[in-house]
Fold:
Amino acid sequence: MSDPVNHDAGEPPASHSEAAPNRDSRNEGGGERRNGNPRGRGKGRQRQGAKPHRRDVNGWVVLDKGVGMTSTQAVAVVKRALNAKKAGHAGTLDPLASGILPIALGEATKTVPFIMDGRKAYVFTVTWGVETDTDDAEGRVVGRTDIMPEREAVEALLPRFTGEIMQIPPQYSAIKIQGERAYDLAREGETVDLQPRPVEIDRFALIHHGEGKSIFEAECGKGTYVRALARDLGRALGCLGHVTALRRTRVGPFTEEAAIDVADIEALSEAAASPGPLDLAGIVLPVQVALNELDSVAVTREAANRLMRGQPVILRGRDAPTEGQLFATLNGLLVAVGHVENGELVPHRVFNLGA
Structure:
């Protein structure tokens, strides 16, 4: 069982250039097989049925993932459809969940941590009267009640779960215990002693209540588990509860308005496989969209070259920033992300976008 809610905590983004295992790997469709050619036959020409040459695609695709698809499978679909060399996602979304799955292509994979740290928004359904060991519909029932909470009782509890709170992650989560993922230990029958952790919930609202269920909207920070919210609400109400539907509506700067569904992405596959230019306007967003929370500074070509070599540059001018993290551009193209020390921009990440 994997976490259908917030996979920021301790979960590396999956990459399809260097495939990384993640929680939904039990049924993942990603990972490419490469057929070896030890005798070098056909070298220099494409064999019949061979994969076309991969493209350098750099930027973000805001995918609206449907229920039933793993995040790893979704990345594979986008990578294959756009014929891209490198792709990864910023925060796993479980097969049971739908909604925003930001997929980084090429140089955008270097900005994944900035998206992982962003605020997220969810709409989710809690079914009352049953608690499961996974805190969602995939788990084994571990408790039942005949109590159904009144709307007023549910709303009265929401302030307790708003702001900075202490939250115990679900047993089936990606938290590491002595080097092992908690969900792996839970699958082996072990009860893991997970400690409460501070998380931030900016907004928590009840939008529908009835027929043994409640639908909520929540906006929260990194590391928040919506499944844990459902579990803790159910226990506080004395009725128990678990998540039965989940949709992620925002991740950092990415919203549903900018999202594209799988079918529309797959429709591009024929054009992407051809050798000519590919029009991705409105589909692939610029790499630096992920950095919209940072200040920016324009630099000269000489300074850009120094940054690309990993060397610091002096920021000149009356309005030059004196501290903090920012990104540098040349002619509008992203060059580097770094921090300012003693009037110098020290690069942390550099980008090869043709600047």
Remarks:
- The chain has eight helices and 19 strands.
- Residues 150 and 209 are 8 Å apart (CA to CA).
- The radius of gyration is 23 Å.
